[in-house]
Specification:
Layout lengths: L1 H29 L2 H13 L5 H10 L6 H10 L8 E2 L4 E2 L10 H36 L4 H15 L2 H19 L18 H39 L2 H8 L4 H13 L1 H24 L5 H10 L3 H29 L7
Antiparallel strand pairs: 1-2
Helix pairs in contact: 1-13, 5-6, 5-8, 5-11, 6-8, 7-8, 7-11, 8-10, 8-11, 9-10, 11-12, 11-13, 12-13
């Protein structure tokens, strides 16, 4: 197991390298931050930007270099630089906001805000998917099965931006109707709150209810359908029928034989839930006024801040690969026939 884990971690390096090259090329071709800054300056001043200012902007953002050279500088920082670029040196690159804005500092400050939202939403969506998928399979073609299927399809069809706005307005309406402040609908924590780790988490919990609810419902439905299909396949398998024929109690059959095997598809799709939640956090954090990584990525995309967007994509890629590794390790736990050598 340890050798397998080590090999997989080593394999992550070329995968991340290839993903970073592709992501960098896509980000670079999707917008020009220099032209975006020129447009903003001309809008604010009403005068055309001088060639000297354009050259200064290009030098500051390394757009006076070719794309391959910009990627090399972003990755290594080796070459003629301004001392603010080089990922392996801990420098994420310059921001369009100016030299006073540190992308690495912004990412480090906002990362845990988004992680607590994404992880809670993924854990909740996986748990609900397992529960509803098993119930639907056991109660196949019953009223409960049809109801859960309908709810799942509705959740699949919900646009995240619309559903998040609807939930936020519902929270505001409920607070007004009951004269309470139970549902926090803006910000990720109390302004100016100071405390240790647990105190910060407890303060953030009321602010996490509605955003987590949105991400959870928009993520769980597809996993629930896979769980239902896997559970039905296992319930109709020969070894489950044999266990029942031997007189093993139905609860034992479900818990020790059927459910364990049927959880393998969920172990496969859980990493995809992380990707879905990370993508949904861009919209959800913006709507609920969170100061997390998703909101930062949203603002960076609007401003064509290419190095900031690359920071978000790199972190999302690392989290996805970690999720896939955990998924592979779970196979051996759920299926004794799988051995890692």
């Amino acid at each position: 197991m340890l050798a397998f884990t080590f090999r997989r971690i080593v394999m992550m390096v070329p995968i991340l390298l290839g993903a970073s090259i592709l992501s960098f090329a896509l980000v670079e071709t999707s917008g020009d931050p220099v032209q975006e800054q020129i447009f903003l300056i001309e809008q604010s001043t009403g005068d055309p930007v001088s060639p000297d200012v354009v050259e200064e902007l290009e030098a500051q953002l390394y757009y006076d270099r070719s794309m391959p050279e910009r990627y090399w500088l972003w990755l290594t920082g080796i070459g003629e630089t301004n001392g603010d670029i080089g990922l392996i040196q801990g420098k994420w690159g310059p921001s369009v906001e100016g030299p006073t804005t540190d992308i690495g500092g912004e990412v480090g400050e906002r990362f845990w805000i988004t992680v607590r939202l994404v992880l809670l939403a993924v854990v909740a969506s996986v748990g609900i998917a397992i529960l509803t998928g098993v119930i639907s399979a056991v109660k196949q073609y019953s009223a409960v099965d049809y109801l859960l299927t309908l709810v799942g399809f509705v959740c699949l069809a919900l646009p995240t931006f619309w559903f998040a706005t609807l939930v936020k307005e519902a929270g505001v309406a409920l607070n007004g109707a009951f004269g309470t402040d139970l549902f926090k609908t803006y910000r990720d924590s109390t302004r100016g709150f100071q405390g240790n780790g647990w105190e910060v988490l407890l303060d953030a919990l009321p602010y996490m209810i509605l955003p987590t609810f949105v991400l959870m419902l928009t993520s769980y439905a597809s996993m629930a359908r896979y769980q239902r299909a896997a559970m039905l396949e296992v319930l109709n398998s020969d070894y489950v029928r044999l266990a029942r024929a031997k007189g093993v109690r139905n609860r034992t059959v479900m818990r020790r034989h059927a459910l364990r095997t049927a959880l393998i598809p969920i172990a496969t799709f859980a990493p995809l839930a992380i990707v879905t939640a990370m993508g949904g956090s861009l919209v959800v954090e913006r709507i609920f006024g969170w100061n997390g990584l998703g909101a930062y990525a949203y603002d960076s995309i609007k401003a064509a801040d290419s190095f900031a967007v690359m920071a978000y994509l790199l972190i999302a890629g690392v989290l996805t690969l970690i999720g896939v590794l955990i998924s592979d390790l779970l196979y051996g736990v759920l299926d004794p026939r799988i051995r890692y050598e």
